[in-house]
Design brief:
Thrombin, subunit H; six-stranded antiparallel β-barrel; 3 domains; 22 strands; Pdz3 Domain; alpha+beta; six-stranded antiparallel beta barrel; 17% helix; 7 helices
Amino acid sequence: MTRPAVHPSGPIICLAALLSCAPSVQAADWGKPLGATYDGPEGKARAVTPAPLELAADERATMAVFERVTKSVVFIANTAIQRDPWSFDLLEAPQGSGSGFVWNKQGHIVTNFHVVYGASSIKVTLADRSEYKAVLIGADPDHDLAVLQIQATDDALSPITVGSSNDLRVGQKVLAIGNPFGLDHSLTTGVVSALGRTIKSLSNRTIEGVIQTDAAINPGNSGGPLLDGTGRLIGVNTQIVSPSGAFAGIGFAVPVDTVNRIVPELIKHGKLIRPGLGVSLVPDAMAKRWGVKGLIIGKVSRGGAAERAGLQGARETMPGRVELGDVIVSVNNRPVSTVDELMDVMEDHKVGDRVTVDILRNNRRQSVTVTLQAIN
């Protein structure tokens, strides 16, 4: 078979046409700058996609909360007296920082106790960047709470709106505002991850009913407010669980119901006035060593609530021989075997309340009624 003749110029003409239509960037140029003379679309700014006419309702609500509540959030810096290792002079050195919030128009500021612990001087910076020297009015290390006060004009102070924590639900949206790593007025969002948690305070006491959240809380957020979706205070951010020291998804806040009970006491008395039985207890470790299940009364305060109720402490029956006092086993039908458990029961009461105390005396169980007294 004879093949048809092909004009020699045909393929050459087609190849030339293809080359003339090829893009100006060749395959060999891939991975290199396009060049100063390149005028294609890749060398120009991308077209801007217009924003939606309105932000989502949830976004607008979060922005409104931040704009309103940020006026109540403060930055706290403290310094401590240190001795210069070379000159041995006493110097004030930065010790730490944290957050807080305006409680009232009298200039009271609420924060964590650990934010101001050991401070020789404290400075508070308001949202308008005005700075004030603060004094410590009162502290409750057991709940990691402290109250400061600054001298500021009414118009400079924007008290936070106080909510409640007893009706919170897991999954509820929360917001945290603070000064993490010294970055002022940072907002993070999340949800209530769990309720009723317990954590240890700086004084090694258990704080009950704590709120767990996944809203990012970092160093510097301590003492700042945890808010619900409407901007009401529901807790004071206080601790994180983290292997690295930075936020790892688990933060804790002291519930606002606890804060709202303690802060007025700190403002009035400088400390928390607690209800108590008026007894000194034998240390838990010693009671455990003796095999006693309950709280051994070591001493009854003279004229106190326990003495009036007929409770008895330890006493020496003969030289070198001591007879144990009454052993408290429950208060209002709640078993108690450690000092922490007794303190937790007292959290639910106030001075003047009458409680039923079950005791063991000479291995016989009996009940007495005690009217709680004020203790330091």
